[in-house]
Specification:
By secondary structure, this protein is of the alpha/beta class. It contains 16 helices and 25 strands. Strand 17 (about 530-535) and strand 18 (about 545-550) form a beta hairpin.
Length: about 650
């Protein structure tokens, strides 16, 4: 959907749409999306994503429809036609259609270790058979643009791979539109910078995405055009392709196509398609004893961190880049899952209580617990393994409810299948709800029976990725194979299932998380200079922070194995410190990757964000960082720290004053 616009129609993320196995629905979603994007005056959208994710540790797994190239290929055609409409020779796209972008070319879903922007180490045969299948259908359907991937193929960056961009895409596949780069992706080519990269254009890129580097790149490219470094034939080809796309969009001539009718954004008809898509995306993994659908007259408790959380159900790329700040207020016609289920239960003659912490006064018949992953986008979501991290005590909540004789339904929100053995065993029913978007009624339509005893819709979704039996990725042992999905007619009981992740969950952690809920995750460790004492304290929950007391000047440090943080060096990534300044003693010195900046946070609760570029400008070396964080202060400083991590903030933040 038009996901940066409050009030727009937000559909399930692609992984949920893949579970629907419905190309006709995908085409309708493309049409609605195009209408709403065009309504705001925009001519071009960066979809469809045609990745075929193979390792679910990848933080962009939810952007892929399926692990099956054939399903991705069928969706590629459907979404392209939905967004653009069929191309007609000599005529521009309709005013309510926009240019599509087949991306990210090529094999972004196959990187080694599931590393975002990493290297896909496969043969050409596997590259074609597994990762390229979506592109010919999209091109044949008329896709006007293709976006190059940040990633590499066997060591060669795609932004500089002439064989793939020119020989294969433009030659063998016959693509006549424009090839656009990803966010400063040209700067990752060896020998290039974000402001100087003739290699990307000679390789076949027609248009660089240079959001904050455009001026220097323009000047360098002009110079290289004049001195012959860029051949005029290559310039003519790029310009012709760009003009061809502009012509098809109706942007040339005296009367360009007008794409601006904001009144259609978030219309009831569009929201109905999103509600249908949310329902069709749900996959029923377990339904022992027929606890679902919730029967008329049932007494229901609705709880869990995702029950009334628009950010969790909409996921990343919604309003903000990481999606963490999305609220129900952003979508006045949207409904959180918990509130939608409560309304449906009451309409069927039952009673429903929405409780954030799972407490109740009147014992329910059934508890619906909505939980799962917190929002993330791109490599912020990369994982060391595919175990679900229980950060809010959800597993204990399931067990506690079960022990009280209450039937338990898990509604699991995630951008990928995750190892959830303990949670499946603690649930009577388990629903993979993915990231269903803003229309929570679509979930209620399937889970809650009406007064006639039947739900508005049954379960039709089937897994488009295997569901893991352990936390090892790529998935070696599926608990449920791709194509699995129960219906209300299914009677077989599921479980108990394996609860052993078969990996050491403590032995690895995100390279960008140094302090979480008052603890330092492995492989990082905390070091304290003499004269600094630490103790666990309660900030928002029991012992979720540590208080550090400076009885003399010194520093606390986070140390560990050297990691490469170069890919986080984007203007919109920052070091985030969460906690509370209990007692000040002058400025606090924060050191990252060898560079020190001084901050003076106000007393009391604090959330400090320092852009990584500020440390770079101060001399940081992000290539091999063994001490990602040190915090130094004078005698008398008392600092409570709850979290320290690198996060994408989606906006330009000023550096601390010198």
């Amino acid at each position: 959907g038009h996901s940066n616009v409050p009030g727009a129609t937000i559909f399930p993320h692609n992984i949920g749409l893949g579970a629907a196995h419905d190309p006709a629905l995908i085409q309708r979603i493309g049409e609605v999306t195009a209408i709403e994007v065009a309504a705001s005056g925009i001519d071009w959208t960066f979809a469809p994503t045609l990745a075929v994710p193979q390792d679910l540790r990848w933080g962009r797994s939810y952007e892929g429809y399926a692990a099956d190239p054939a399903l991705v290929a069928s969706y590629a055609k459907a979404m392209t036609i939905g967004l653009q409409g069929p191309l007609v020779a000599g005529k521009p796209l309709a005013a309510d259609r926009v240019a599509a972008t087949a991306k990210h070319y090529l094999a972004d879903g196959g990187t080694d270790g599931g590393k975002d922007q990493g290297d896909t180490l496969v043969s050409e045969r596997e590259l074609v058979a597994k990762h390229a299948q979506g592109y010919p259908p999209a091109i044949n359907a008329g896709a006007l643009t293709v976006m190059a991937s940040f990633s590499s193929w066997n060591g060669a960056k795609n932004h500089g791979n002439q064989s793939l961009l020119t020989d294969v895409l433009k030659g063998r596949m016959g693509f006549e539109g424009l090839v656009v780069g990803d966010w400063n992706g040209h700067g990752q080519i060896p020998g290039c910078t974000v402001t100087d990269c003739p290699k990307t254009f000679t390789a076949g890129l027609d248009l660089a995405m240079a959001p904050n580097s455009w001026k220097g790149l323009y000047e360098a490219t002009l110079r290289e055009a004049r001195d012959g470094t860029l051949p005029m034939a290559r310039i003519d080809d790029a310009v012709a392709r760009i003009l061809r796309v502009k012509a098809k969009l109706g942007l040339l001539g005296a009367h360009p196509v007008d794409r601006g009718n904001p009144s259609v954004v978030g219309s009831d008809a569009h929201l109905a398609v999103a509600r249908e898509a949310a329902a069709k995306s749900l996959v029923l993994l377990k339904n022992n004893g027929g606890v679902l659908p919730l029967k008329p007259g049932t007494k229901v408790l609705i709880t869990g961190p995702g029950a009334d959380n628009m950010a969790m159900q909409a996921g990343g790329w919604t309003i903000t880049w990481q999606g963490t700040d999305t609220t129900a207020a952003d979508f006045p016609k949207g409904h959180t899952i918990g509130r939608a289920i409560a309304a449906a239960v009451k309409d069927a003659g039952g009673s429903a209580a929405l409780s954030a912490d799972g407490s109740f006064t009147d014992t329910p018949d059934v508890a619906v617990v909505v939980y799962g992953e917190q929002p993330y986008a791109e490599f912020q979501g990369d994982m060391p393994n595919i175990a679900f991290r229980d950060h809010a005590g959800e597993t204990a909540m399931l067990a506690k409810l079960k022990a009280q004789g209450i039937k338990v339904v898990s509604v699991f929100l995630s951008g990928r299948p995750l190892f959830t053995g303990p949670e499946i065993n603690a649930s009577d029913a388990f629903v993979a709800a993915w990231l269903p978007g803003t229309q929570g009624e679509g979930v209620a339509d399937v889970l809650v029976a009406r007064k006639d005893g039947k739900p508005a819709r049954g379960f039709t979704g089937k897994l488009s990725f295997p569901w893991p039996a352990d936390a090892v990725s790529p998935v070696k042992t599926p608990l449920f194979a791709a194509g699995y999905g129960l219906t209300y007619a299914s009677k077989a009981a599921v479980g108990p299932v394996n609860e052993d992740p078969k990996v050491d969950l403590v032995a690895s952690a995100s390279e960008g998380v140094y302090f979480a809920l008052g603890k330092v995750p492995s492989p990082w460790h905390l070091s304290l200079d003499p004269g600094i004492a630490a103790r666990a304290v309660d900030l928002g929950a029991q012992e979720d922070a540590q208080a550090f007391v400076w009885s003399e000047a010194g520093a606390i440090g986070i140390d560990g194995p050297p990691v490469d943080l170069l890919r986080q060096l984007d203007e919109e990534f920052a070091l985030k410190l969460e906690g509370k300044l209990d007692a000040a003693a002058g400025p606090i010195a924060v050191t990252m990757a060898g560079a020190t900046l001084k901050i003076t946070p106000p007393a009391g609760p604090m959330t400090v964000r320092i852009p990584l570029r500020c440390f770079l400008e101060a001399g940081a070396n992000f290539k091999a960082v063994g001490t990602p964080l040190r915090i130094a202060g004078e005698k008398g400083l008392v600092l409570t720290l709850r979290g320290a991590s690198i996060e994408g903030v989606g906006q330009t933040i000023a550096c601390p004053a010198k």
